[in-house]
Amino acid sequence: MEPDSRSQESQAVEAGVSQGCPGFAAALVALCLVSLVSCRSEATGGGGATISLDISPNAVVGQPAVVTVVASDASGAPITDARVEVEGNMRHAGMAPVIAQAAEVSAGRYAASDFVFTMGGDWVVTARVVLPDGTKVEKSIEVPGVSATRGSAR
Asked: Which domain holds residue 104?
């Protein structure tokens, strides 16, 4: 019989799975849940910072839209001097994203005025905000039914 080249750790993992070790299965489920929670995107960042996102006028293919992002702290006061990037992606794979930088137009209010939906269909628009202290906050909204003749069904 040939020696098993697998590590002792992988042999132990396989043994735990194959023998139905309930403690091992519970630990594996807990690890997966921790991984999922740490990867989620939130609209609230460190210190209670929140952002909101709006698009006007209605999204129409090939016509500029203004994407407005409002950043505020836990008390509702505007957050100034943040870096804001807006990214739009279609719901289906294979399309290049639309990316625009937003400029601060008033205290805590940022606008990307050159955002153009390049194709009809369903989009997701995400605002990525880096606060002055380096904290990152992200928010996404669905923009369904963008077409060349009418605005989004949003």
From this structure: 46-146
